[in-house]
Amino acid sequence: MSEKDQESRWLETISALEKERDLLRRRVEELEEALQGCLSRSRH
User: Fold this and answer.
1) Which of 12, 16, 26, 33 has its CA 20 to 30 A from that of 41?
2) Which sequence ranges form a coiled-coil region, renumbered to this chain (predicted)?
3) CA-based diameter of the chain, in Å?
4) How many CB atoms within 10 Å of residue 19?
5) Helices H, strands E: what count in the chain?
6) Residue 6 is part of which domain span?
7) Residue range 1-44, pLDDT digits in tens
8) Is the C-alpha dihedral spanning 38, 41, 42, 43 positive or negative?
9) How far is residue 2's CA from residue 13's CA, in Å, rounded to a whole number?
10) What whole-number distance in Å separates Cα of residue 34 and Cα of residue 17?
11) Opening angle at CA 12, ends 26 and 19, nearest 5
12) Phi first, then psi: what are they for 23, rounded to 5°?
């Protein structure tokens, strides 16, 4: 495999991981909001 091919494969992998990271971050935010909702409900 040429160096160019290797490099473009790495770039693809990186962008896929970044997409995954953004999705996970969004999921974490949703979970935190849900948790806050549960906590504030249980306090009352």
Assistant:
1) 26
2) 14-41
3) 64
4) 10
5) 1, 0
6) 1-44
7) 799 999 999 999 999 999 999 999 999 999 999 999 999 988 76
8) positive
9) 17
10) 25
11) 5
12) -65, -45
